[in-house]
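Reviewers asked in the last cycle whether our approach scales beyond single polypeptides. To address this, we selected a multi-component target totalling 682 residues and predicted its structure end to end. The input consisted of the following lines:
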Amino acid sequence: MKVAYWPGCVSRGFTPELHGSMEHIAPMLDIELVELDRASCCGAGVIAEHSQELADTLNARTFALAQQVGSDTMMMNICSTCQGAQTECQERLDANAEYRALVNENLSEYGLEYRKGLLNKNLLWLLVEDYGLDELRARVKRPLTNLKVGPFYGCYIVRPTDRLGIDDSRPRDTYMGQLIEALGGTVIEYAGTQKCCGFPIITMNKEASLKQAGRHLGDAADADADCLVTPCPLCHLNLDLQQPLAERIVGRELNMPVLHLPQLIGLALGLSPKELGLGRHIVKPTSVIDWTTSVIGGVEAAAA
Amino acid sequence: MSEFTLKIRRYDPESGEAPYWDQHTIDLEPHRSVLEGILQAKARFDGSIGIRCSCRAAICGSCGVRINGQPGLACHTHLDKALKGARDGVITVEPMGNMPIIKDLIVDMDAVHWKKVQRVTPWLLNKEPVPEREYVVPRESMIDVTQSMACIQCGACVSDCLSMEVDPDFIGPAALAKAYRFAGDPRDAQQYERVKDLAEDPHGIFDCTHCFKCIEACPKGVAPMNQIMRLRRIATGTHHISDRNNGERHESAFVSLVKGHGLLWEAELLPRSYGGDNFFGKFAPKAGLELVDSLPVIARGLLRRKVTPGKAMLPPRDVPKDARTQIKQIFDKVEGRAERRELNLYISGYDEDADGAEGQHAPEAGQPGISPEESPTR
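The resulting structure, written as structure tokens, was:
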């Protein structure tokens, strides 16, 4: 399977282990990544808030670059925020031909044009809908037996449901649970699973922001989760990078490791924690579970 | 007729008893509403169930509740649809969140919702001189405010607001949508004062986390979050209000960093949000204070090699130079234009042949006569 791959900014910035782990698991899944290295930041809603036309033009440019890879090639992202912000722009571009032409005008001098109807999917959606969980299950070398994983969806990949195409036939707000089970893990239900991590207001109202992160981490701990997994690197910043500060604000020790989606998959595929950059987290997953020697369900790690 | 089981959360604060669940099986056609189900349970089994309702037609906004955890109008949710979202075939009905309970499904709207609406001066402050006859305004100038005028004050968005959950002082989605209704009205004389007030309030427009809960909750397609974003655009873009909450600086730094490097440069975004959007922003006292506050996190980040000092100091260079130039030119082109080009799907609707981004057919725009459920909310 060949996809036009958009890694995003944060996955190459403050969470380099995300892009790194994606590059590690792709060949093991026979997914060919054609990286869109000329594309720009999706704007994360902030550029759209500043200027709608600017955000729409930047993302139309990214979509056009993806369509250059192959006319019916799917675009894949590994960041919920990219998914949400890009889908918002795409909704406008696809809805109105006149507006699309207006935006494409901004791109014409670079020989780029966005044609309506690009499929842009987060790794999570692609795995469940196109790749297939059976195919994934067949490649699991080290099932995550007895590992209790709390899915942390965040906002951009589950709301608004109509824009994101979530309905009975495509229950995308349940995919994380399905995926964790396919990898052999146990899904933990807790209150914060589809709530906001608080990251967008970290510079505006730090207390309210970290209260959200701290509350959800605490809820997951109370529900007996070993770790959380998230498809969103921005959630990861608030849940992992900021966890020491969140602990201070909610007044309790949390010590909850938070994994990126490709890291969890990589572990099940048999990759070592080091290859997946797990040691780079602020809350080292190794401090909670000794991934190097063990462990989950008595299956030896590939590279101890 | 079909049978449906309703599980209703009961609570009477005056009784001193703890809340509990009550279960009743009612008999109604599947297309009837959850409200009718509750009223039947009340009539047939237990007259003491507390529920507020009036029009039963999704107009008055009285019967806001949570059905299977999701906020909405009880009169506007079909029983069969509610059953689909129910666990173990039991439809749960709870009072709305973020507001104190008066009894059972009735919450205290005065204590939270109405107080917040009053906070935003929810009336027109006329431009002088007042014309002898009606104000005449260009048709297009009212387009965006019509969306917030569709609000029926049911409180569903307030119920689910995730910022309010941790910060009860947050003005919140319903009141801020109402604020935009006047700040965006061309007849209003005090747009600047209104947005300045809301930008400077530590619990104002910059307290919204962009979580889309209110958009999802609203039965009328008001999309309160989008109205909050419009308020921010007026505060930062139109009036350049440099607020104490870092809202304007954050946006400005975000935009100029992406313009300069094609990607976000997080290590520079944070200090500039506090200290100001320029090279020296990170040396400002406010940025320094923030740096000290975040030291434990920064130290661990460096220790774990999550961030290397070199990476933090140097801008991202993942995007090749000629592509960065293209991106810069696009910023200049769009921002250099005098008029703002925008598309509001709530008004424009979708092309007849257009499908949604993910292949869903989208109906016409939110015009009167189209049920809110079918109306695109943005």
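The CA atoms of residues 91 and 162 of chain A lie 11 Å apart. We regard this as preliminary and will revisit it once experimental data from Aim 1 are available.
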